[in-house]
């Protein structure tokens, strides 16, 4: 299957290991992965901060880059949530009816990684090996906007040598919230500190999630606390094999 | 009142408040989840609730006129109030006309919204709150912190102190040996309130629902104080937001299931009182309804925003909100706190003040509020809608650092070549940041991140550059 990778602006710029792992994983599963170089960002940061006008160019860039693909995959529940739930409204606000139509045609073909693996490729065992104690945080947009449900957990349970431990109050928001982390830093940190405390309670060495952004926030707190807990994107765990140093 | 970020900072630092809130919201969340889980048609009920409210709002003019006609036919009097000032004047005049100097009150969000108690006090009329939690707030010279549990931010020990200190000054005092046992506290409140119920000749209430067909008002409550207020006095004045209407008595079937399960986590609320006009020889002999607009028609005019008027004030969104759980209600600077307050207040009051401009941002957009809303108000979507309104109405000059940042980011992200150029600069800058993979301090406004969290250093090589280097020329 020919698949276009949406690396997301954060994945492309700050956390390239997540999109790289996505490429390795999809290729191992027999997909032909392409990276349309014209892509930039889903525009969520602008939309969610109220800068809808500035989000239009991101939406247009997204459509131009991906319109020709049957399947687009991104290692981010949040960005895919933005494509599926916000792009139409942003496009409509621009008054460009062609853009509105193009967005509505493309959005259903854009998948979050765990959705794509389980529901499109039909697999839960991706042949991964990751010998660590791991806990999983279901990020809000994966859980509530996309309803990925237990798909990430089903994938993690099949990973060889992985010890999966349950995260207390897993469904509570970590407090990242995009620019919320800057506009309301005190509340954001209070929420993140509770999340970090729950992660430490599990005794896990690795915190895993399907969004680099939430991991950046929780990881930033865990790192400041010198907790010794690593944050690792779901894609990296699923891409790991026995040959890797992991 | 400072805007949310500053008010929230104080709340977040208050460990007693955090402890009280976390305990109370967790308990209500659990109760709600368990009773909602009992109904296999909850999704359909929720859809029905949303549909009835949406329909009523889109024909509100018709239903309001129908309601007025029915109330008048049943012997009541309807008054129309454009804003808080008008509503307060109507109520003050009505109380004055009775010659009384005090009223008992059923807990009402509408009268809090218009600050009726203060208006009555200015006119020399004492208003006594009779809901237990509202009584605690009033005696404590405090403001409510929650729609349904106004004293959620107080614990038993604090309540005992308030009763001991304040009750005697306004009525029957608390006993000298009062402890902080809930039964003893409730008993002290009961003795204090009973004297007021038996003496008062005028009551002021709100309403949970107003039935257009019959002119009936409905109040649901848990303590029986509502029923006392609605039946004992000679004059009853009800202040009701125009969005409280439902077309017919039958529609109550839906809401009387949705409301108690969503709010108190009960299958049914202990008291449901309905009253229609005046019945000779039984209950209040003089009955007035004040229909309150106070910004509601402005909200109604906004196609996206109007769904906030579907709210039945159950407060389920407050109890699941991770932001509310850590700040409590006072930080919102509105009688409607939490997620629903963040979308309701700026619509009712407009977005001119710094407080109202900050409210749509008082959320991480986690979506938990939408999941529990019994009338399916898409609060996250509405927050984003209102943020757009705030930016378009107030950020024209682009003077703030965040505005500049967003403008710059928008320009960079508008084109892949510009993004690639920035990535090259970022990778190059990494050599100045040091060997650790993270950054401890960034300049303002990004210092708001690094004050408490490490920030990741830019990648040594962007994904784009890696792809070009390893797969370059393969495609696109």
Shape of chain A: globular
| C-alpha termini separation of chain B | 55 Å
What share of the residues of chain B does DSSP label as strand, in percent?
5-15%
- The total beta strand count of chain B reads 12
Following the backbone from N to C, one meets helices and strands of chain A in this order, namely EHHEHHEHHHEHEHHEHHEHEH
Low-pLDDT regions of chain A: none
What is the count of β-strands of chain A? 8
Radius of gyration of chain A: 18 Å
Question: Which whole number gives the mean pLDDT of chain A?
Answer: 96
Strand residues, percent of chain A: 5-15%
Descriptive notes:
Chain A has 246 residues and is α/β, with parallel strands linked by helices. Helices cover 51% and strands 11% of the residues of chain A. The mean pLDDT of chain B is 94. With 476 residues, chain B is α/β, with parallel strands linked by helices. In chain B, the strands form three sheets. Chain B has a six-stranded parallel sheet with strand order 1-10-7-4-2-3, sandwiched between helices. Chain B has a four-stranded mixed sheet with strand order 8-5-6-9. Chain B has 23 helices and twelve strands. At the A-B interface, helix 1, helix 3, helix 4, helix 9 and helix 11 of A face helix 1, helix 15, helix 18, helix 19 and helix 20 of B.
């Amino acid at each position: 299957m020919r698949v276009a990778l949406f690396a997301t602006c954060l994945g492309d710029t700050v956390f390239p290991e997540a999109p790289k792992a996505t490429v390795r994983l999809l290729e191992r599963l027999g997909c032909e992965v392409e990276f349309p170089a014209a892509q930039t960002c889903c525009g969520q940061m602008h939309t969610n901060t109220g800068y809808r006008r500035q989000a239009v160019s991101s939406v247009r860039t997204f459509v131009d880059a991906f319109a020709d693909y049957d399947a687009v995959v991104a290692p981010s529940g949040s960005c895919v949530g933005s494509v599926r739930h916000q792009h139409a409204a942003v496009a409509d606000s621009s008054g460009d009816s062609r853009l509105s139509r193009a967005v509505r045609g493309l959005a259903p073909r854009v998948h979050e990684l765990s959705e794509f693996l389980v529901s499109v490729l039909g697999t839960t065992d991706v042949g991964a090996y990751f010998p660590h104690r791991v806990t999983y945080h279901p990020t809000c947009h994966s859980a509530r906007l996309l309803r990925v449900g237990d798909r990430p957990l089903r994938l993690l349970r099949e990973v060889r040598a992985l010890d999966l431990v349950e995260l207390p109050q897993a469904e509570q928001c970590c407090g990242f919230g995009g620019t919320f982390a800057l506009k309301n830093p005190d509340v954001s940190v209070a929420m993140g500190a509770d999340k970090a405390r729950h992660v430490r309670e599990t005794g896990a060495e690795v915190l895993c999630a399907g969004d680099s952004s939430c991991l950046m926030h929780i990881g930033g707190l865990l790192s400041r606390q010198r907790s010794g807990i690593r944050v690792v994107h779901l894609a990296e765990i699923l891409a790991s094999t026995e040959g890797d140093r992991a | 009142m400072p805007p949310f970020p500053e008010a929230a900072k104080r709340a977040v630092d208050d460990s007693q408040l955090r402890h009280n809130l976390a305990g109370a919201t967790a308990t209500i969340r659990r109760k709600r989840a368990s009773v909602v889980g009992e109904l296999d048609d909850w999704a359909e009920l929720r859809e029905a609730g949303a549909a009835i409210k949406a329909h009523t709002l889109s024909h509100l003019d018709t239903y309001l006129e129908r309601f007025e006609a029915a109330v008048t036919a049943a012997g009541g009097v309807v008054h129309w109030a454009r804003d808080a000032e008008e509503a307060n004047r109507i109520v003050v005049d009505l109380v004055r006309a009775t010659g009384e100097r005090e009223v008992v009150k059923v807990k009402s969000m509408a009268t809090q919204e218009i600050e009726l108690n203060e208006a009555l006090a200015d006119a020399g009329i004492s208003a006594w709150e009779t809901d237990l939690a509202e009584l605690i707030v009033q005696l404590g010279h405090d403001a409510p912190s929650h729609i349904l549990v106004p004293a959620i931010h107080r614990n038993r020990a604090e309540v005992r102190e308030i009763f001991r200190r304040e009750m005697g000054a306004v009525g029957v005092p608390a006993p000298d040996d009062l402890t902080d046992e809930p039964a003893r506290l409730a008993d002290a409140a009961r003795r204090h309130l009973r004297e007021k119920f038996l003496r008062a000749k005028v009551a002021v209430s709100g309403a949970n629902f107003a039935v257009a067909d019959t002119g009936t008002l409905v109040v649901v409550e848990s303590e029986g104080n509502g029923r006392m207020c609605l039946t004992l006095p000679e004059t009853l004045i009800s202040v009701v937001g125009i969005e409280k209407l439902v077309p017919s008595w039958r529609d109550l079937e839906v809401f009387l299931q949705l409301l108690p399960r969503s709010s108190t986590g009960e299958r049914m609320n202990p008291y449901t009182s309905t009253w229609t006009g005046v019945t000779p020889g039984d209950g209040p002999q003089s009955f007035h309804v004040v229909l309150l607009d106070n910004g509601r028609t402005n909200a109604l005019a906004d196609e996206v925003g109007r769904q906030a008027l579907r709210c039945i004030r159950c407060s389920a969104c407050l109890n699941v909100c991770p932001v509310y759980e850590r700040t409590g209600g006072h930080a919102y600077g509105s009688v409607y706190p939490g997620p629903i307050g963040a979308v309701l207040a700026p619509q009712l009051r407009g977005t001119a003040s710094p407080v109202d401009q900050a409210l749509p941002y008082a959320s991480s957009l986690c979506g938990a509020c939408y999941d529990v809303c019994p009338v399916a108000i898409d609060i996250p979507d509405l927050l984003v809608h209102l943020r757009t309104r705030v930016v378009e109405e107030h950020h024209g000059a682009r003077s703030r650092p965040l505005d500049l940042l967003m403008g710059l980011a928008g320009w960079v992200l508008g084109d892949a070549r510009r993004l690639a150029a920035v990535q090259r600069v970022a990778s190059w800058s990494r050599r100045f940041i040091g060997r650790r993979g993270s950054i401890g301090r960034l300049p303002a406004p990004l210092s708001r991140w690094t004050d408490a969290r490490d920030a990741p250093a830019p990648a040594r090589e962007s994904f784009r550059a890696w792809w070009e280097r390893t797969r370059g020329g393969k495609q696109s």
